Automatic annotation (TrEMBL):
InterPro entries: BetI_C, DNA-bd_HTH_TetR-type_CS, Homeodomain-like_sf, HTH-type_TetR-like_transc_reg, HTH_TetR, Tet_transcr_reg_TetR-rel_C_sf, Tscrpt_rep_BetI. Pathway: Amine and polyamine biosynthesis; betaine biosynthesis via choline pathway [regulation]. The gene is betI. Repressor involved in the biosynthesis of the osmoprotectant glycine betaine. It represses transcription of the choline transporter BetT and the genes of BetAB involved in the synthesis of glycine betaine. Residues 31-50 bind DNA. The keyword DNA-binding applies. Pfam families: TetR_C_6 (PF13977), TetR_N (PF00440). Residues 8-68 form the HTH tetR-type domain. Keywords: DNA-binding, Repressor, Transcription, Transcription regulation. This is HTH-type transcriptional regulator BetI. It comes from Vibrio caribbeanicus ATCC BAA-2122. It comes from the Bacteria. GO terms for biological process: glycine betaine biosynthetic process from choline; negative regulation of DNA-templated transcription. Coiled coil: none annotated.
Amino acid sequence: MPKVGMPNIRKPQLVQATMTVIDRVGLHSASISLISREAGVSSGIINHYFGGKHELLQETMREILRQLSSTVTAKLNDLPKTAHVQRINAIIDGNFVGYQARRKVANTWLAFWCYSAHDTELKRLQKVNEKRLISHLKIELKAMFEPEQADIIVMGIASLIDGLWLRGTLSPEGIDVGKARLIINDYLDKQLTFYSQKQTYES
């Protein structure tokens, strides 16, 4: 009979082992055998707790997204709801620092990102993350711009976050969060200036 509470120990252990193995050998070579060996358990444990490798991969992706959501939410909760630029920077930081910046986490996410084009569930999880990012940004930007303009800027910032994260993950130096913040804020400042001048002209 399995020990009470063991799933709460084994499941996170296997998720961490999955990320370590993907970081080392890549997604396609991350076999159940390698993952179980990394976790120090038998291969049958993965089938017992997850039903197989595919379900373990999905849970690994969910854990990365849970950590991201938790980080961004915590950062936003520390700021006044009227501090819109600061809150946008908190969203940026949440995507680039802490848990998300760990090499094995970033490389696992990159592997999933590529693979999601051929996997329905991973694609769905990517869409959930994308919608969450856009929702966070819309709340802040719609308080600063007209709705139509805000929607355009949301997509601009979301694209910059994704692009800078991808470049940083592929770079040997890793993600430079200071530079990412500088680039995105420069884009936002230009939009604020343009929008302010447009309103002055139209009035």
